[in-house]
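Students often ask why inverse folding is considered easier than folding. One informal answer: many sequences map to the same fold, so there is more than one right answer. In these notes we will look at a single instance of the problem. The structure comes first.
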């Protein structure tokens, strides 16, 4: 092989699209995401369970928070700093925590709406609005946690680049030339997705790609719309 052939071969190798330098961080193996922000969301959801009136929380009132703390501690022990360890038992614990918090949120929404419809909710406008805000924020945090936990198999699977096809298409994925090559979705991105979906009642700049993602966003928008409309209507009626 001649020298020019060697140079041509080197040029082709350097332009190989499979080279890590050419592949964005979200599509290849990375060091894994920190657990701090997701843990903060879990703590926030548990705190809202304590702040809500007893009629909006499952009984006994300590059960959901206690189970949540136990699962959170287990996950911290299994993946203390960065979420990059793929173990089936860790995955089950993480999904169990998400389901547990989603159940608590669903319970709160159901009993808040039921109380608004049958008139058993207090006529205290301040208390009603406070409970409504807490339920709405719980909705945002729970769905953010769910999107983060399920997109492309979860944070550990994303760290290993297991699934090439995203469940949520972020702007940085659509415009790689305008994004940092080291960008990859973190909990903040899923929190933004959840917040905008709960306020706009529809996708904004993050598009759901898989069917489960579309159904989840539809469910969140419906819950948010019902909660906001009923709480505001009742509060206005109380305030005259």
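Output (designed amino acids):
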């Amino acid at each position: 092989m001649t020298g020019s052939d060697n140079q041509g071969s080197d040029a082709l190798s350097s332009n190989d699209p499979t080279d890590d330098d050419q592949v964005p961080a979200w599509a290849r193996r990375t060091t894994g995401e920190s657990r701090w922000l997701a843990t903060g969301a879990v703590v926030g959801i548990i705190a809202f369970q304590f702040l809500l009136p007893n009629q909006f929380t499952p009984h006994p009132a300590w059960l959901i928070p206690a189970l949540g703390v136990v699962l959170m501690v287990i996950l911290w022990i299994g993946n203390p700093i960065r979420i990059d360890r793929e173990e089936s038992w860790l995955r089950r614990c993480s999904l169990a925590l998400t389901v547990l918090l989603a159940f608590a949120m669903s319970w709160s929404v159901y009993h808040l709406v039921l109380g608004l419809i049958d008139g058993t909710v207090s006529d205290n406008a301040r208390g009603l609005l406070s409970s409504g805000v807490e339920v709405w924020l719980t909705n945002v945090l729970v769905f953010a946690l769910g999107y983060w936990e399920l997109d492309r198999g979860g944070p550990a699977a994303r760290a290993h680049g297991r699934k090439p096809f995203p469940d949520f298409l972020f702007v940085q994925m659509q415009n790689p030339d305008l994004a940092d090559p080291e960008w990859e979705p973190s909990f903040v991105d899923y929190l933004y997705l959840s917040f905008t979906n709960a306020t706009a009642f529809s996708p904004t700049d993050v598009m759901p790609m898989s069917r489960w993602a579309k159904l989840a966003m539809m469910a969140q928008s419906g819950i948010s719309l019902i909660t906001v409309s009923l709480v505001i209507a009742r509060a206005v009626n109380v305030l005259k």
